[in-house]
Amino acid sequence: DSGVTQTPKHLITATGQRVTLRCSPRSGDLSVYWYQQSLDQGLQFLIQYYNGEERAKGNILERFSAQQFPDLHSELNLSSLELGDSALYFCASSPTGASNQPQHFGDGTRLSIL
Amino acid sequence: DAKTTQPNSMESNEEEPVHLPCNHSTISGTDYIHWYRQLPSQGPEYVIHGLTSNVNNRMASLAIAEDRKSSTLILHRATLRDAAVYYCIYISSGSARQLTFGSGTQLTVLP
């Protein structure tokens, strides 16, 4: 058990819809990362938050947004969903986001777009 | 992007040591080397990380070359549960410290 909790585990929805994925980091961790894993692109970094502030952006589409709340949980919002958005979405956390700290991953949310 | 090179796949027999190589020729002096693994249907799992000297923990050992352009993850006695994709990553010490995953090495452990 990594201590990172992601909900829901599975989401099935249709094209054009909007969904919200939730992540609770490990106790004490201030930094949260979101990653997307698809069959053709592998694991890709989307965005990082540290103590409520956006710290880094990766290959995140404009239709996607995220935030980190005062209690440090984070949400990833995906809108105008397309078939290609079907993927596993992972959240990870680390204490401060320093490069010498491991990231601990949740079990992911599997998003299926029909 | 931080680029590493790993073999696509490796096989090992159960109970034997496994040496998983990684090349990271563009690494900088302050970049940490991290290893993660991903078991089927699970999220990536942290294995070990290091900067210059060799590192050991309960899961594995990390041997880092003197010039830091390559490293080797050592599983001392492979078990069937070690079958996974192993990712070698180095994290640049700039402001963006996200993990840049390559394609990794698929480790198969034979009984």
Integer-rounded radius of gyration of chain A: 13 Å
Q: What portion of residues of chain B belong to β-strands?
A: over 45%
| Alpha carbon gap, first and last residue of chain A | 31 Å
Main sheet summary of chain A: 7 strands, mixed
Characterize the overall form of chain B.
globular
What's the pLDDT, averaged over the residues of chain A?
Answer: 94
Largest interface, with Cβ-Cβ < 8 Å?
A-B, 25 and 25 residues
Q: Tell me the structural class of chain A.
A: mainly beta
Strand order of the largest sheet of chain B: 1-9-8-3-4
- Helical content band of chain B: under 10%
Query: Which consecutive residue ranges of chain B, at least 5 long each, have pLDDT under 50?
Result: none
Q: What is the chain-wise order of helices and strands of chain A?
A: EEEEEEEEEEE
User: How would you sum up the major sheet of chain B?
Assistant: 5 strands, mixed
* Overall strand count of chain A: 11
Secondary structure topology:
The complex is a heterodimer of chains A (114) and B (111).
Chain A: E1 5-7, E2 10-13, E3 19-24, E4 31-38, E5 42-50, E6 53-57, E7 64-68, E8 74-78, E9 87-94, E10 104-105, E11 109-113
Parallel strand pairs in A: 2-11
Antiparallel strand pairs in A: 1-3, 3-8, 4-5, 4-9, 5-6, 7-8, 9-10, 9-11
Chain B: E1 9-13, E2 18-23, E3 32-38, E4 45-50, E5 55-56, E6 61-64, E7 70-75, E8 84-91, E9 105-110
Parallel strand pairs in B: 1-9
Antiparallel strand pairs in B: 2-7, 3-4, 3-8, 5-6, 6-7, 8-9
Could you please describe the fold and organization of this structure?
The complex is a heterodimer of chains A (114) and B (111). Chain A is mainly β. Chain A contains no helices and eleven strands. In chain A, the strands form two sheets. In chain A, strands 2, 4, 5, 6, 9, 10 and 11 form a seven-stranded mixed β-sheet that branches. Chain A has a four-stranded antiparallel β-sheet with strand order 1-3-8-7, with no helix packed on it. The relative contact order of chain A is 0.33. Chain B has strands at 9-13, 18-23, 32-38, 45-50, 55-56, 61-64, 70-75, 84-91, 105-110. In chain B, strand 5 and strand 6 form a beta hairpin. Chain A binds chain B through residues 2, 4, 33, 35, 42-45, 48, 55-56, 58, 90, 92, 97-100, 102-108, and chain B through 30-32, 34, 38, 42-46, 49, 51, 87, 91-93, 95-103.
